Amino acid sequence: MTESREPAPYAPARALSVYLLGTIEFDALQALQRRLAFDVSGDRDTAALLVCEHPTGITIGRAGSAAHVRPNPHQLEARGWPVNWVARGGGAVLHVPGQVACYPILPLDALGLSPGRYVRELVSLSVELAREFAVDAVPDFERPGARSRGRRFASVGANVRANVTSFGLLVNAHPDLAPFWEVRCDGDPLPMTSLARESAHRVRAQTVRQRLVELIAARFAFDRVSVFHTHPALLPRHPYHARTHGS
Questions:
Q1: Least packed by Cβ within 10 Å: which of 181, 215, 218, 244?
Q2: Please, what sign has the CA dihedral across residues 66, 69, 74, 80?
Q3: Which are the catalytic amino acids?
Q4: Are 124 and 112 within 8 A, CB to CB?
């Protein structure tokens, strides 16, 4: 049965800046996310989207618990898996290469969206994405995300502050699935799956990234999209600049 959707309330003629960042450490991502959220809060005709991958590590949201992480702290340290407690919805999430992290930074008030509606839109978007790879997917609104054959392949965990979003959506494109037996993502007793495992077609992270950008721009009615492959805040500072302007 085709899922019915309410008419989108989003205002047209808004600009979306997309940053395709490749692999980025989580701490650097968080700092950039905070900076862009500050920028968007001051200009609500703009929005940003960060699309990246993270090295292996764990984040735990407001609904999470350390009990959802099976390895003990010594084992995590030996594996080089950092754990970050973050201010987003959802529980524990394992980040691994081959997983696409998508962080929309949107002004919800300017788009006419409530936080709850925004989360539902991300859930529906992840189902729409999966179906483009011929994956039979269903939405999960209890543990926000999407499932295929009972197992989650996408996780939604957002934060909203001053009506500006951060964090967002994680999609398993083609990661190694073995580590997901070690973390109960969002408290789910079943390990996560991936688009690659559930699809009969080849799934590439590059294609998943591209389609996510296109789907988000379309769903939230952005008609001006600019794509960048870095952000000035991530560039190394020139030594002269550091000497001249440092303390």
A1: 244
A2: negative
A3: 185
A4: no
pLDDT tens for each residue of 168-223: 999 999 999 999 999 999 999 999 999 999 999 999 999 999 999 999 999 999 98
**Can you read off the two tokens belonging to residue 14?**
């808004």
Paired residues of 92 in beta bridges: 60
Task: Specify the residue for token string 């090295």.
Answer: 55
- Per-residue pLDDT of 80-138, as tens digits, reads 999 999 999 999 999 999 999 999 999 999 999 999 999 999 999 999 999 999 999 99
What's the whole-model pTM score?
A: 0.90
Domains of the chain: 15-245 (3.30.930.10)
Contacts (Cβ under 8 Å, ≥6 apart) of 127: 3, 137, 138, 139, 146
